[in-house]
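Tokens help. Consider this.
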Amino acid sequence: MALSKAELVEYIFAMVEKAQGKKQLKAMDIQKAVLKAHPDQPKNDVKFAIKDLIDGSRCVYTYFGGSFIEIPHEEGAAKH
């Protein structure tokens, strides 16, 4: 069964959060993982869920020889 938009956003956020510090995820990696777990999920829903996470500043794009989706890093000064 396909996830609702809100469930999909949270599912992807949890996936990115879990990978943080261990593996960098590309948008295509996320899409493949979601479609493997939920084969009936429309691909466009995944793209829009990623866009929601980026637009809402819960995730950011980083670039190190390729575009990756990560949770924003807290700068040392920002913690004070």
User: Anything to note?
Assistant: The mean pLDDT is 92. Residues 9 and 49 are 5 Å apart (CA to CA). The first helix runs from residue 5 to 19.
